[in-house]
Design brief:
The protein is α/β, with parallel strands linked by helices. Helices cover 37% and strands 18% of the residues. Strands 11-12-10-13-14-9-15 form a seven-stranded parallel sheet, sandwiched between helices. The chain is globular. The chain starts with 17 loop residues before the first helix and ends in a 6-residue tail after the last helix. The protein binds adenosine-5'-diphosphate (ADP) and magnesium ion. Magnesium ion (MG) binds next to helix 9.
């Protein structure tokens, strides 16, 4: 097969029959290029082989021998497969438990390499449940006489790591020369990195741990560099193609805007307002992430920016991830702007058709100044007359695509709004530098004054009544509570649902108090009514699912009690806890949990130990990894296969610095020598980042 290329289908490779090919395809490995990029996720050390007369007991050993006898023993449900291996020096008994199927695979006359822990059984040496490999040609397969590293590949039920290993090992030498590097040699040398070809050799067939680590470093760097190049290219494309309205601010306007707010801004808010006003004053489209822990007061900061747009004769918009939150923004902002001429409207998926049509035509005519809503704002037919400031609240729920979609709402193709993204889930530093790497970042790093820290306590399910007693105490003092359960309807045993919880509480622990349900199956009207009554203190407690998770702001609520807390993610628990502690009362967060996994226990311990959103985000990233961190697959975060954002901060910093310099020098990567770099970058992240191919 003289014409092997990276595009050659895997089934053309030596030793790949239909079954193996099917297994490889199932893992997404269709072509030689995919195969070579399928890197081991770890390595296993293999000990030198020992002859059978020389085996120590209670040791991990590797050895080979011919199968001289085999039999199936035990009963049907508990079959043992026993063999004897001999190598001319000695003999060894080998047994596999519950392994009747091995009888069909391992036959007398086969040569086997085995690896496992020896033990003494009835005074004879025995190897139980070893890993094994049938040597097709024992003479040709050299005995392993030095410790070696064996790659362990991501595999599946249908294809074992060992098979993948064999396929790659057989063809590696022919594949490697096909790999051209997309980075120049001097560039790599400066960073002490191997060429791509060498990196692939080392990652698949390392001599030792150092080689494997060095190879991994190069491949991880590549992933991060491609991502960062994409991020900086996207920013360059935006800035070159589009202008945003420059919004002026002076003392008079500043005073007028602040007069609308029912409190003085904190230093932390002022600082961020200053950064935003600086951005908006120029026609360079703002792309800023505002992170501030739950309750830090992001809403008024957003309002400030939107009012700058309105004052200059443009429009502002804020998009929230849930209807409840959009409604709340609408109410808050409306009350702050009561008796002003500013026209505010709410648009969600639940807005009736006739109302929506009327609203949209007023929007297009410029008769609405601030539009508040859910992702309904992105739907077709929503056209602004002149959108100058677009705010996306709680971005961790949204993909990066939303930013682009919202930008596209500007009427004039050459113009784009300033975009502010707000999140209460602080993005750990590493992630902030990746898919969000083209955002400037502002942090509201202090809470408004007068907040008392929230006390968090853990309860086992049997201690539930203690938790309820604490809730009751608060309600008796006229404060309010949230009681959260993971599901609406009873499903599994041991999982609390809101209906049962309501019934149980009414029947005893919270009898006599005014309780109501809040969950996603209620209509918007019903939810509004419930929220309205809760806000008016016409209800004492809400029995809710996590729909109340984001942004709900009710200062009189001072207890958050969460059932089956082990079922919630860390970010989610932190969000839920943030629903209380917004007023003057010292608030409580009560976690009722029965954790059965290490991760779940870890999350609860973190919750109890810290209230710092940044720390929680970092721990969350470590526990779950970045893919999960954003919750949704469509978060716009390209999948990283080699790089590990919880660990590779130094590589990321390097990749970022390199990418920035590179794009400054060559914004479109259009130089001829950049051809393969450019192609690979588009392939890796172009779609996720919404990059436009120019030329
Ligand atoms: P988040 O950052 O979670 O969106 P919000 O904007 O909902 O926070 O604000 C939380 C609460 O703090 C609201 O009740 C808001 O009115 C109040 N708040 C915001 N800024 C201040 C301030 N500077 N002084 C006093 N209270 C404030
Ligand atoms: Mg908020």
């Amino acid at each position: 097969m003289p014409d092997l290329t990276l595009l050659t289908p895997v089934e053309k490779l030596q030793g790949v029959g239909p079954a193996v090919a099917r297994g490889l395809r199932e893992l997404g490995l269709f072509r030689v290029g995919h195969l070579i990029a399928h890197v081991p996720h770890r390595y296993q050390r293999i000990e030198p082989e020992t002859t059978l007369d020389n085996l120590p007991h209670d040791h991990v050993v590797s050895a080979r021998g011919e199968v001289t006898a085999s039999r199936l023993a035990g009963n049907r449900r508990n079959a043992r497969f026993e063999i004897v291996l001999e190598d001319g020096h000695g003999r060894l008994d080998v047994v596999w438990f519950n392994a009747a199927y091995l009888q069909r695979k391992i036959k007398p006359g086969h040569w086997l390499r085995v690896r496992g822990t020896t033990r003494l059984y009835n005074r004879a040496l025995q190897l139980a449940n070893p890993e094994y490999e049938i040597l097709e040609n024992a003479e040709a397969e050299p005995a392993i006489d030095e410790p070696a590293l064996r790659p362990v590949y991501p595999a599946s039920e249908h294809i074992a790591s060992r098979v993948i290993e064999r396929v790659i090992a057989r063809s590696l030498d022919r594949i490697l020369p096909l790999i051209d590097d997309h980075l120049p040699e001097p560039f790599l040398a400066e960073r002490s990195m191997p060429t791509l070809c060498e990196a692939y050799r080392r990652v698949h067939a390392p001599k030792d741990e150092d080689e494997a680590a060095g190879a991994r470093r190069r491949l991880a760097y590549d992933e991060l560099l491609l991502l960062q190049l994409g991020v900086f290219m996207r920013r360059a494309q935006l800035e070159l193609a589009k202008r945003a309205p420059a919004l002026a601010i002076d003392d008079a306007l500043d005073t007028r805007i602040r007069a609308r707010m029912p409190f003085t801004l904190t230093d932390a808010q002022n600082h961020v307002v200053g950064e935003i006003a600086g951005d908006l004053a120029t026609d360079r489209p703002t792309n800023r992430l505002i992170q501030g822990d739950v309750g830090s007061g992001k809403t008024v900061v957003a309002l400030y920016a939107m009012l700058m747009a309105v004052a200059a004769g443009h429009q502002g918009a804020i998009m929230a991830p849930t209807e409840i939150l959009a409604e709340q923004h609408f109410l808050t902002i409306k009350s702050m702007l009561a008796d002003s001429r500013t026209k505010i409207e709410l648009l969600t998926g639940a807005t009736p058709k006739a109302e929506r049509d009327a609203l949209l035509s007023r929007l297009e005519a410029g008769a609405i100044d601030i539009l508040i809503g859910t992702h309904a704002l992105l739907s077709e037919g929503v056209r602004f007359k002149s959108l100058a400031v677009a705010v996306i609240d709680e971005q961790h729920r949204f993909g990066v695509h939303q930013r682009a979609a919202l930008r596209a709402k500007a009427d004039d193709p050459k113009s784009t709004p300033h975009v502010l993204v707000m999140t209460a889930t602080p993005i750990p530093r590493t992630l902030a530098l990746t898919a969000f790497g083209d955002l400037d970042i502002s942090t509201i790093d202090a809470l408004p004054p007068g907040r008392t820290p929230i006390k968090t306590r853990l309860f086992a399910p049997q201690q539930r009544s203690e938790a309820y007693a604490l809730v009751r105490e608060r309600l008796e003092q006229g404060q309010q509570a949230f009681l959260v359960a993971p599901v609406i309807e009873q499903s599994e045993t041991g999982i609390m649902d809101v209906r049962t919880l309501l019934r149980d509480l009414e029947a005893g622990p919270l009898a006599g108090f005014r309780l109501a349900l809040m969950h996603g199956q209620l209509s918007q009207r019903e939810r509004e009514t419930v929220m309205e009554r809760f806000r008016a203190a016409d209800l004492d407690a809400l029995i809710a699912t996590s729909v109340i998770e984001v942004g709900v702001d009710l200062p009189n609520a001072s207890v958050m009690c969460i059932e089956n807390a082990e079922r919630f993610g860390l970010a989610q628990l932190h969000q839920l806890r943030g629903r209380v502690g917004r007023g003057d009362h010292a608030s409580l967060c009560l976690l009722i949990a029965d954790p059965t996994t290490e991760d779940a226990t870890e999350r609860l311990v973190v919750m109890e130990a810290t209230a710092d959103g940044f720390e929680i985000a970092q721990r969350d990233l470590e526990i779950r990894g970045p893919g999960e961190f954003f919750g949704a697959a469509q978060s716009g975060m390209p999948r990283l296969r080699v790089a590990d954002l919880a660990r590779d901060l130094d590589l990321l910093t390097l990749a970022r610095k390199d990418a920035r310099a590179w794009i400054e020098a060559s914004p479109e990567l259009a130089r001829p020598e950049e051809e393969s770099l450019r192609r690979r970058m588009f392939k890796a992240v172009g779609k996720e980042l919404g990059l436009v191919e120019i030329g």
